[in-house]
Amino acid sequence: MEQAFGIPVFSAIDQVGLDVAKDIEDHYLNVRDDITRTDASELLSKYIKDGKLGVKSRHGFFDYDDDKKATSTEKGHTLMYLNIAKNSISKIGANGGTHSIVMSSVGQTPDGIQVDQKNGKMYWTVMGSPKKADGRICSANTDGTDMKDLIEPGSTHTPKQIQLRGDYLYWCDREGGHIMSCKTDGTDFKTLYDSAPDEERPLGDATKWCVGITVDTKRNLLYWTQKGPSKGGEGRLFGMELGKPDAIQTILHNLPEPIDLELDPSGETLYCKSSHLPS
């Protein structure tokens, strides 16, 4: 409901009051023959029995502090995420709570995001159109102010996953077949790897599309995926020492469309997401 219509249902019920919501639900059950399921009313009754009425009792679907803010959202870690359909950035507490839009109109088809909590900054990729070299790298404050292009359209083709390591950003350029990096102020922009040095862009061969990326700064290693065609089982996972693009290691091959990568903080385990398998 929130993704489609912007309505955070459970937070809204907490604001109205679970007892009020139950009265409304019971009224519908009484006057409309087409509504026969009692699940919602029964669920609300359980919460009300425990004294959980929402904001007015400080406990409902969420718990609230003295300022009537959802503690699950306002306390602890916050997740920032991109909405590719609405071209927006939203946030939610890591333990749940109310979603809220931080920025709208962040660019056509945003894809990857990183947040620097220490400096109050966030960085994201904007893919643009796969047929055009109009992708870009953007930054803004975590409150949505001071948005700017770090890498302007034309310099990167279709940027996908992005990683922040220290003062540097690293990302994969899918149809561009590149791995790129720059400082967080947009300087020192460079190409670290090119999967097809002598070919025109956009690349039509999906086995050369760079998509997911992660960096092990302790070991000075970079890992990335090259997706491969849909349902082709030709995806690969690569690794190389930063600054040594001639010494590339194929770690895994014949993978089902590998995309995003994450590195365990210990540096011992890589996690890979597949766009073909539910894994």
Show the helix and strand layout:
Layout: H1 2-5, H2 9-16, H3 18-31, H4 39-49, H5 71-74, E1 78-83, E2 88-93, E3 96-104, E4 110-116, E5 121-126, E6 135-141, E7 148-156, E8 159-165, E9 168-173, E10 178-183, E11 190-194, E12 210-216, E13 221-226, E14 235-241, E15 248-255, E16 258-263, E17 270-274
Helix pairs in contact: 3-4
Please describe what this structure looks like.
The protein has 279 residues and is mainly beta. It folds into two domains: 8-73, Orthogonal Bundle (N-(1-d-carboxylethyl)-l-norvaline Dehydrogenase, domain 2); 76-274, Neuraminidase. 15% of the residues lie in helices and 41% in strands. The protein is built from five helices and 17 strands. The chain has helices spanning 2-5, 9-16, 18-31, 39-49, 71-74; strands spanning 78-83, 88-93, 96-104, 110-116, 121-126, 135-141, 148-156, 159-165, 168-173, 178-183, 190-194, 210-216, 221-226, 235-241, 248-255, 258-263, 270-274. The chain has a four-stranded antiparallel β-sheet, with no helix packed on it. It has a four-stranded antiparallel β-sheet with strand order 8-9-10-11, with no helix packed on it. A hairpin with a 2-residue loop joins strand 8 and strand 9. Helix 3 packs antiparallel against helix 4. The longest helix is centred in the N-terminal third of the chain and has 14 residues, at 18-31. It is elongated and about 70 Å long. The relative contact order is 0.07.
